[in-house]
Amino acid sequence: MKQLKFDAVVIGGGAAGMSAAAELRSRGYSALVIEREEELGGILLQCIHNGFGLIEFNEELSGPEFAQRIEERAVALGIETLCGTTVLEIRREGGFNVVYGVSSKHGGLRVEARAVVLAMGCRERNRGNIRIPGSRPSGVYTAGLAQRLVNIDGYLPGKDVVIIGSGDIGLIMARRLSWSGCKVHGVVEILPYPSGLTRNIVQCLEDFGIPLYLSHLTTNIRGKDRVKAVEITPVENGAVRFDKSFEIPCDTVLLSVGLVPENELSRGLGVEINPATNGPWVDSRLMTNVPGVFACGNVLHVHDLVDYVAEEARRAGACAAQWLAGDSPSRELRLKTGSNVRYLNPAKVDPDRENKIYLRSMVVKNSAVLEVRMDGKVVKSLKKAHVQPSEMLSLTLGPKDFADPGQMSANQAVQVEIAIV
Amino acid sequence: MKFEAPGAAYSLKPAAGTTDWAGRLGRPARPVEACEKPGSVYILKKPAAGDNIQDVAATTRKAARTTERYMTNRAEVYDVAIIGAGVCGANIARKLSQYELRVALLEKEIDVSLGTSKANSGIVHGGFHDNKKYLKARLELKGALMFERLHEELDFPFERCGIVVVALHEDELRTIEQLYLQGVENGVIGIEMCSRERMLELEPKLSPDTMGGLYAPSGGIVEPYRFVFSLVESARKNGVDLITEFAAALARRKDDEWILTALDGREIRARYVVNSAGLFADTLSKAFGAEDFTIKPRKGEYYLLDKMTRAKPNRVVFPVPTAVSKGMLIIPTVEGTVLIGPTASAVEDKEDFSTTRQELEKILQSARIMIPSISETDVITSFAGLRPTCGEDFIVELSAKVPHLVQVAAIQSPGLTASPAIGEYVKDLLKKDGLRLVEKPDWDPYVDKVRRARDLSPWELDEMVAKDPAYGDIVCRCERVSEAEIVQAIRAGHSTLDGIKYVTRAQMGRCQGGFCAYKIIKILMRETGMSYEEVTKRGGGSYVLRGEL
Fold first, then answer.
1. Model ipTM value
2. Does domain B76-159+221-292+390-445 correspond to CATH entry 3.30.420.40?
3. How far apart are CA A297 and CA A311, in angstroms?
4. Does the distance separating the beta carbons of A155 and B549 come in below 8 Å?
5. How many CB pairs under 8 A join A and B?
6. What are the pLDDT digits (tens) for B21-54?
């Protein structure tokens, strides 16, 4: 069995993994990226639409172009990669993190690493997860699987399509399939507002005249061998109105009903998971409860834009490098979710440096204010024209926001809370 | 896309000895001869020099999916034809494969175990639910004791994990005592009554409202479809012909033989026939002019929970049974997931495997009463199975109306547990009816053990990759299934996505095929020469793809 040693091993070769590894290399540490597919890039490779890179590269790129930019930079910096390699397990052995993997080329692998960066991304929620009753015919796909089949393998999953859930991948696929000669009969969303980005609602549904059924629940899937129809039922004031159910005939159902971080490897290692994000609890350095194990990208929490993923991953790489150098923050403050905030990431801040915080609203609200409160006192507030659950928010907190640091060190139990009012 | 040679085009990897655009070197294709098993209906043909590859691929497809072997044996008379390749038919076929007999196992679906045997609780029952006056109880007790040996010979997932029955009220404790006394009378080994403390010690996740219960250490769990696959593999290895997509519809007597006609017009001749057609045993019986009984389907719906669930018990957890049903259970499956259910509702349609909102809601409610930590966020899928019911007991008997027909009908719970004993019992009935049984000197009870990536340590996996590199390509990440296992399943004749799923577990985990379905489709096309239009979920009209760009 092959044995290797690296300063850092990055698990996953998507945008997050490559960005974190590049940052580690740029700071002089050896970094190995382990990717299960045959090439780097992750899910970006099947996202052939544009809209990527507006923040990161100041131009509009397709998914593969975005991946290529990041890969070129990382490879130029000298990251090592092992593609076609599946990580089987991460273990603590004698103070090291040890990553076990397998590939057809190298057989079993054992890699010792001081630091590990988790960047495995997320998976799509499926029919079982949202518990749609009915028969179990063929023709029910997650939107991402359909995207892969169409964009990479060149096959059409069906001709008459209903999309359940208004997540971004579903919206993008509505447009993609319409272009490919399929008829998309509608997008069904249980919530009274869409889950995807507004720009996708406009560009992928409205421009193609595809109906969006808000506040509608999919209550049945019919068909013995292949899907024949879906039953849609309106939800009015929280009540499911079965008397108003109707059917849409179709041969294909695509599900775009949310993403779940893939933390099975992390759990095996003993990483604690935040139920609000399904990702690890991390401190101000994006380090999990296991020493030397960092997390970034969609494995930490599901992001809207890959640009945010790349930024967060760079930060994780930098923090891992600092940890490898033996630096650690002298103190950290716990961040609490206040009113209307679903989650915050990271869950701790270092009051002695700048901290970038990503958060998600629980409510749809116009002219909202993001408030940072310390022991009940508002220390920072930001005006937002509009907030909604599907659009991630961010803010930075730095030493100047934590006034009177003397008092803080005396009182470690100080409460920092972020609320949307 | 046009293919150049089977295994080259559609391949996930570059062809042997060549490199692709990224400079990756392809490895040699695995030899095709490996799949040419004697006695096999599924034959994947090896292309010979000069063959038109298109023709070979087309023949291979045909052979893999239909019954080429049968066509060459048209004139042959089988000693026994078994209708229905569920758990009963499979056990009977394997039992008969021990003797010098020509046996045909007929299945209307594209693969075996796609009916009631696929969707059930997968339990080896504890032998305390029914009185010995019932045939089903006697067969259950006998069958339950046969599993260790079958497990050793046939390499299917089985574990004697034990069963607990939970009483949540004083009244229920009285029923528990009845069950205990019945178990003792039935000779169940190790059965005991448990105090509240003992129950919570055995199963700490049980509700604090537990008052006490029953513990039967002899109960167990089994993966029912894998059990059937292994039985059929063993039967075929010992000369039984499996003929799939043969929907027996008509039967007539001629020259002391039964002539069976399928819906598509094909015919099979046999001296003896076993009707183990599950839900359709009643229509079959009528087709023979035999007994008139009616099989009523009773639907059972289930939820499957992720392996990571915190609610997983150590043993099968039963509620106190009611007059009509054993109730909704919490079952830790051998492969680590947790099954909750089944519901019980009478339905009309024998092909209605749909789940319903009302019934599914009952499952979660009922399961949470026993184990409160069960969460809907752990649900990865739901499914339904149909119990073939007719009266209170099994029907396993020689037909009194027509000659040489054995009826195996109304095999509901505890049918899976009883099935090995049903195999023996049917053999005895056939003998009684004049079938001459001569043991085969070379009968081989063992099947080849498949090495599965998920059972191997990284070191063991390293050794396997050295022998077969395809063990290093993990296709299904959730259940850790390698390409090698998928190829083995395809070469054993499983040519649908569902067939591959039930044999290998690929697509059965938390992503339900979201990440691996496209890879499996490609492997299936590469290995069988099917075009994309021919790939189905489970045969029939369940095609998967509808066009090319």
1. 0.94
2. no
3. 9
4. yes
5. 163
6. 333 344 344 333 333 333 333 333 334 444 444 4
Q: Which residue has the tokens 């040519």?
A: B495
Q: How far is CA B54 from the centre of its chain?
A: 34
Q: Which residues contact B79 (CB under 8 A, 6 or more apart)?
A: B101, B102, B103, B270, B271, B272, B435
Query: Residue B410 is which amino acid?
Result: A
Phi-psi region of A35 (alpha: psi -120 to 50; beta: other; left: phi over 0): beta
| Residue B457 CB partners (closer than 8 Å, separation 6+) | none
* Superfamily name with CATH number, domain A126-257: FAD/NAD(P)-binding domain (3.50.50.60)
Q: Is B223 helix (H, G, I), strand (E, B) or coil?
A: coil
Same fold, B76-159+221-292+390-445 and B160-220+296-388: no
Please, are residues A299 and A264 in contact by the beta-carbon 8 Å criterion? no
CB A234 within 8 A of CB A190: no
Dihedral over Cα of B334, B335, B336, B342: its sign: negative
d(CA B509, CA A110) in angstroms, rounded, equals 26
Pairing mode of beta strands B405-409, B395-398: antiparallel
Window A:122-161, CB contacts with B under 8 Å: 123-124, 126-129, 131, 133-139, 141-142, 144-145, 148-150, 153-159
What type of residue is B327?
Answer: G
Specify the CATH superfamily of domain B160-220+296-388. Answer: D-Amino Acid Oxidase, subunit A, domain 2 (3.30.9.10)
Chain B CB contacts of A278 under 8 Å are none
Find residues 186-245 of chain A whose CB sits inside 8 Å of chain B.
Answer: 219-220, 222, 224-226
Q: Do B513 and A145 touch (CB under 8 A)?
A: yes
3-state secondary structure of A205: helix
pLDDT tens for residues A41-79?
Answer: 999 999 999 999 999 999 999 999 999 999 999 999 999
Structure tokens at B18: 């060549």
If phi > 0 it is left, if psi is from -120 to 50 it is alpha, else beta; for residue B217 that is alpha
Q: Which two tokens stand for residue B203?
A: 């199963």
**Measured between CB atoms, does A93 come within 8 Å of chain B?**
no
8 Å CB contact of A133 and B308: no
State the Cα angle at B24 between B28 and B30, rounded to 5°: 15
Determine the pLDDT at residue B68. Answer: 41
Residue of A nearest to B360 (CA): A133
